[in-house]
Amino acid sequence: MKAVAVVGNPKAASRTHDAAEHLAAALGLDCEVLEVAGLGPGLLTWGDPDVTAAVERVRTVDVVIAACPTYKGTYTGLLKLFLDQFPTATGLAGQVALPLMLGAGPAHALAPELTLKPVLVELGATCPAQGLYQLDSTYTTDDSLARWTAQWGPTVPDTAKARTAR
Q1: Residue 65 class from Cβ within 10 Å (0-12 exposed, 13-18 middle, 19+ buried)?
Q2: Is 33 helix (H, G, I), strand (E, B) or coil?
Q3: Domain CATH code at residue 154
Q4: Would strands 63-69 and 30-35 be described as parallel, antiparallel, or unpaired?
Q5: pLDDT digits (tens, 9 = 90+) for 18-67
Q6: Where are the alpha helices (DSSP H) in 28-104?
Q7: Which contiguous run of DSSP H or E holds residue 4?
Q8: By C-alpha distance, which of 40, 54, 47, 42 is closest to 5?
Q9: What range defines the domain where residue 10 resides?
Q10: Rounded distance, CA 106 to CA 150, Å?
Q11: Helices (DSSP H) in the chain: which residue ranges?
């Protein structure tokens, strides 16, 4: 199953990038990482060829991992700029999307569910699992990914296969 991790962290090669790769590996996904920061000022206009190519690349996969650090209790403006390039209701139609956010503390644990997931659904994606929130200081050593995967892991490929079969 093909996937792309859309990383909305302004810093390249971030912990967010790493966490997205860990999630993809835990789900057994063949995953490419798209660093939104690498698209630069093209995100501020419509029709930039690199941004258009990135959007089309995202639209060709089965699973989209939307990975972002938590800023002020929500996702970054950088990720927002990229998601704005997708048409409402159809931009991610036919795809499974997984919101993944990292943060400094538990106060923003609902951010993936309350801020990022609704945007992905608005773009037409199916989000069959609860968003994953991990502490950026312990995501590699705590059991948050294992617990999430145990609960939601089988749902992701089943949903993607069902959507592809339509």
Answers
A1: buried
A2: strand
A3: 3.40.50.360
A4: unpaired
A5: 999 999 999 999 999 999 999 999 999 999 999 999 999 999 999 999 99
A6: 49-59, 77-83
A7: strand 2-7
A8: 54
A9: 2-165
A10: 21
A11: 15-27, 49-59, 77-83, 111, 117-122, 144-152, 155-165
